[in-house]
Please model this.
Amino acid sequence: MINGKKLTPAEWEIMDAVWNLGASPSVRDVLEYAYPNGEKAYTTVQTLMNLLEKKGLLTRKKIGLVNFYTATRQREEMIASETRHLISRVFRGSAPALANFLIAEENLSLDDIQNIKSLLKEKEKQLKEN
Model:
């Protein structure tokens, strides 16, 4: 969620395709990348991309008859915004409550736990250096 602009699951799929394709993909590029088996129609993808443009998350440049789109926000920025919104709304602003839920509810492997510990140690080190 950026400036109150929450993305639907379908909009996330489109944005994910735009981010992964890089440069300035066309509707056809996004359609072929995100829905290689024809799960969505060209017009549906075009409508979604136009909605994302209206939300200010894509810009459009027309070259000849083809529209090319560019993301105005980085993936990490959108993920951070959505995560902050989730923590605020569902976990009353508590990141530890989110972490506790994920650890308690997920089927974590020993490797997952070791990776999480490494991430926490690295973050702790960064905070101590500052």
Summary: Strands lie at 58-63, 66-71. The first strand starts at residue 58 and ends at 63. Helices lie at 9-21, 27-34, 42-54, 75-90, 95-105, 110-129. The two ends are 29 Å apart (CA to CA).
